[in-house]
Amino acid sequence: MSCGHILRVPFITLLAYGLLSLGVAQAQDKAWEKKTRELEQKISVLEDYLKERAHELSQELQARERLLQEVKAQNAALYKEMSLLKERLELAERELLHLKIAFSGSKSEAVLPITLADSKTTSHAKEEETIAKGQPYQNAQVQKLSLALKSREAALRIGAIVELNKIDDDEATTAITDALCDSDTYVRMLACKALAQRKAMTALSALWPLAKDGPAEVRAVAIQTIEKITGIASGLNTSDAAVERDKKVALWQEKIKAQASEKK
Question: For the CA atoms of 113, 114, 116, 121, what is the dihedral angle to 10 degrees?
């Protein structure tokens, strides 16, 4: 065997091996390309899904925002309606109080002259005699009306407050202030309203207990009275618990004191 023949055999082998390796590499490249395309297709499908899902979520979010705005609008409308109803209720309560006072006053017209008359007749004469032993008012008219405030009849006491409120005198204010301790709810409420009209700063000390611990309807009128007298809002609500009322009243009193100090 010649040397050329011996050299050609390894060369052919190497060539075949190289071609085989090249084929394998090409096959691997094609396999990788196929896998890459499949992966790209999967990624594309996933991207499409995510875009679609994001769009759906965006639409859902917009729908929820619109719903939230609608709910807010409804809440605002309800709040406005509640405020109107509250105002109407307060107006109705005031009208009811006025009607009760008017009714009581109409009954007192026939009774009032008996107590205030100079003649001492019936059991009212004994009542006047007992009351007269106390500290009299300098104003004779106030003194007579103050006797009616001690009557057993609430209608008569209400009539007395109405008449006292017509008198421009500090003693009349004092007599009305004393009526804040009356046992009758409507007498106390009417006294509060009269003091509010008179802007009676001297009555504040007697009004505070009613504003803090009085019955709900008396408390509401007492709070309104103090607000009208001082011109300072209380921030109190009739639904406030006792502890909350105490805190608000204390803060309110500090504001009123500060205002008084500034005026000095």
Answer: 150
Amino acid in the structure at residue 157: R
Structure tokens at 102: 């008017």
Residue 20: pLDDT band (50, 70, 90) is low
The region, left, alpha or beta by phi > 0 then psi within -120 to 50, assigned to residue 136 is beta
Q: What is the pTM (predicted TM-score) of this model?
A: 0.54
CA distances from 104 to 4, 158, 187 (A): 145, 7, 10
Q: Where do the domains of the chain lie?
A: 101-263
The CATH code of the domain at 101-263 is: 1.25.10
Task: For residues 177 and 166, give the distance between their C-alpha atoms in angstroms, rounded to a whole number.
Answer: 14
- For 61-86, the pLDDT digits (tens) are 999 999 999 999 898 888 888 888 88
DSSP for 125-184, written as a single string: HHHHHHHHTS---SSHHHHHHHHHTTSS-HHHHHHHHHHHTT--SHHHHHHHHHGGG-SS
Encoded tokens for 190: 């009417």
DSSP designation for 238: T
Composition of the chain by helix, strand, coil, percent to 5: 85, 0, 15
Compute the distance between CA of residue 264 and CA of residue 251 in angstroms, rounded to an integer: 20
* pLDDT the model gives residue 10: 67
Kindly state the tokens that stand for 76.
Answer: 């605002």
